[in-house]
Recover the amino acids of this structure.
């Protein structure tokens, strides 16, 4: 499956976050995802998609809708994952809905969009600028399909759809784990997992004499670590698909790297630029 890098803006009288929704629809529809719903008329426009997974026989339900308030100057996306699809239900009341807001913009949005048959990952560069991320769809489960049939993840920047602008300085990315903006579906409910390696103080903790060397590259090589979902106790459920921890030492957002002929782009956590505030997203293709 491919990736797409580009931008949308408010030319032609259409707000950029509306165009971002349309871009996701067009890209997903052209690359194996089925459009179940696309509403381009309502103020809160919406998109619901179905993926078939790596087996080609699965049903993975994800979606995006807009929410905005001109008086408060925010224009956001709401990312969602569902356990099914009911045509008569609203976006927010789809079966098993789990939703996470992603601050966007009414003006120019630069984006990095990548997908495969089981998940969609998006990064938007907006405003000052800051970098807003989301992930919807399956993770890579550490278990057989008969044990763990629907390990979907909803990862964004906010819990639900709060009135939060991109300029807010408190919100943070799902990929660091242990926050309401990240949810993992278990066999009977939604979990709020931790994410390795951010829970490991030796790798991604505050710099000390003990772990300082672990925060940097090795002789100019940046090693990617899987972002693994766990409960900081006895359970390790799986890893995110195509999203990896990378050191921020002597690194910068939008850097690119190639490993085994596969390209990756480096993304930061909103405005943060510390050594542990970066991840690398695989550009499928």
């Amino acid at each position: 499956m491919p990736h797409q890098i580009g931008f949308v803006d408010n030319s032609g009288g259409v707000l950029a976050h509306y165009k971002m929704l349309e871009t996701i629809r067009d890209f997903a529809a052209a690359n194996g995802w089925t459009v179940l719903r696309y509403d381009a008329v309502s103020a809160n426009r919406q998109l619901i998609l179905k993926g078939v997974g790596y087996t080609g026989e699965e049903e993975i339900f994800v979606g995006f809708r807009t929410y905005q308030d001109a008086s408060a100057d925010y224009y956001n996306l709401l990312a969602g994952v569902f356990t099914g699809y009911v045509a008569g239900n609203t976006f927010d009341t789809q079966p098993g809905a789990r939703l996470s807001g992603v601050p966007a913009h009414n003006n120019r949005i630069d984006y990095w969009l990548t997908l495969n048959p089981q998940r969609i990952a998006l990064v938007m560069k907006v405003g000052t600028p800051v970098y807003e991320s989301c992930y919807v769809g399956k993770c890579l489960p550490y278990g057989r399909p008969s044990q763990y049939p629907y390990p979907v993840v909803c990862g964004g920047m906010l819990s639900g759809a709060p009135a939060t602008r991109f300029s807010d300085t408190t919100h943070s990315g799902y990929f660091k784990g242990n926050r309401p903006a990240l949810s993992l579906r278990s066999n009977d409910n939604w979990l709020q997992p931790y994410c390795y390696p951010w829970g490991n103080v030796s790798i991604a903790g505050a710099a000390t004499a003990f772990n300082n060397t672990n925060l940097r590259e090795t002789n100019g090589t940046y090693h990617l670590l899987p972002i693994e979902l766990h409960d900081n106790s006895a359970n390790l459920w799986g890893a995110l698909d195509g999203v990896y921890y990378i050191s921020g030492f002597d690194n910068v957002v939008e850097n690119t790297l190639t490993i085994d002929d596969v390209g990756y782009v480096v993304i930061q956590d909103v405005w943060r630029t510390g050594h542990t505030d970066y991840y690398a997203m695989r550009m499928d293709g």
